[in-house]
Write a structure and sequence with these properties.
Blueprint lengths: L3 E4 L8 H19 L6 H19 L7 H16 L7 H12 L6 H10 L3 E6 L3 H11 L7 E4 H4 L6 H11 L6 E5 L2 H10 L3 E5 L14 E3 L4 H11 L1
Parallel strand pairs: 1-2, 1-4, 2-3, 4-5, 5-6
Helix pairs in contact: 1-2, 1-4, 2-3, 4-6
Length: 236
């Protein structure tokens, strides 16, 4: 019997496009503070994203380190390349820009509310620092919609390590076979969830991850389809 649905955050509840815009504004503010408006924001942002992605790829499944430190290290590497200083309050800049520019998928709120109307526990499992996710959810106006929030900071490990998923289920008081996990990363989200016995759902709006669909139990192109999956499981 289905009792809980958990969601990833970036790329699942908020759009990756919105995240890209947010990060461009972060880089733009850093360059403004440094008096380096001569630099191309999009070019510098691209290098920042590459550095950040490489650092996070190395952390998959490993013990937690603060994301604020990883992001700061990524911008420092780019700053060294161009010769500009990184503001001491870089993380505060980052959170402020996420609060301002983050964008939910159009059907995110209605999906969460529909699942709650079915009597399900609705939670988040995300690789995140606690201050980031709390600030971002509150800025989006959806913090109070979730019954539980589990971060890599809470769990002490990054996905796909089992601990984030296990801790979320402990908070919800559910067993793995009673839970769905929805994410946009087949390797971290689907594999991580399935390894602990949860049902995995991949959100792939553009169908670009087709070669990795085999890692997931279900594939949806929009969040509202998760409600139909939940309903069908409740009817069994």
């Amino acid at each position: 019997m289905l009792r809980a649905v958990f969601f990833d955050f970036v790329g699942t509840l908020i759009t990756k496009e919105g995240e890209n815009v947010t990060h461009q504004h972060i880089v733009g503010e850093v360059l403004r503070r440094a008096g380096r408006e001569d630099l191309d924001v999009v070019k510098v942002w691209g290098e920042y994203e590459a550095e950040s992605s490489a650092l996070f790829k190395e952390l998959a499944g490993k013990p937690y380190v603060k994301i604020r430190d990883v992001d700061t290290e990524a911008i420092r590497k780019v700053a060294e390349h161009y010769g500009f200083p990184v503001p001491e309050d870089f993380w505060e800049i980052s959170i402020a820009m996420h609060e301002k520019y983050g964008k939910l998928f159009d059907d995110a709120v209605e999906t969460i509310k529909a699942l709650k109307d079915l009597g399900l526990h609705v939670g988040i499992i995300t690789d995140s620092d606690n201050d980031y996710i709390e600030a971002h959810l509150k800025a989006l106006g959806i913090y109070e919609l979730f019954d539980s929030i589990t971060t890599s900071e809470d769990a002490g490990y990054y996905k796909p390590h089992p601990r984030p998923f296990q801790l979320a289920m402990e908070k919800a008081g559910v067993k793995a076979e009673e839970a769905i996990y929805v994410g946009d990363n087949p390797a971290k989200d689907c594999v991580g969830a399935k390894n602990v016995g949860m049902i995995s759902v991949l959100l792939d709006p553009s169908g670009t991850k087709r070669e990795l669909w085999k890692n997931c139990d279900f594939v949806v192109s929009k969040l509202s389809e998760v409600v139909e999956i939940a309903r069908s499981m409740l009817e069994k």
